Amino acid sequence: MNPRLAEAALGLVGTPYRLHGRDAKTGLDCVGLVAEALRRAGYPATAPQGYTLRNLSFRHWLPFAERNGFRAVDAGGDIALAMVNPIQPHLLIAVEGGFVHAHAGLRRVALMPGPLPWHIPLQWRIAPN
Q1: CATH number of domain containing 21
Q2: Is the pLDDT of residue 54 over 90?
Q3: By Cβ atoms counted within 10 A, which residue in 1, 77, 119, 127 is the most buried?
Q4: Domains held by the chain: number
């Protein structure tokens, strides 16, 4: 867990949810949450555009991870990609005791304690800057 990223993510808990949201004042989705937390933690961030809430495949978005300085890991990532259902990938940020994520149902960024209940096909660590 990256402490700078975790602290930045925890500071965004309560931020409104908005699909394709990129501004904490008006709302963030899971991609916007990761981008905003990265910026607040002092890392450069470029978020992908043009995705939908449901996706049959997320593989074409993976180059964004490398461009943002992430490296894939088998476990203990700073950022996790979970499959909420078979067609809905979702990004979450690891924090002490759980994950911060943009919760569409709650309409806000929330802290999810404990391990994730979903399949995690990919995790990344942030390369030090």
Answers
A1: 3.90.1720.10
A2: no
A3: 77
A4: 1
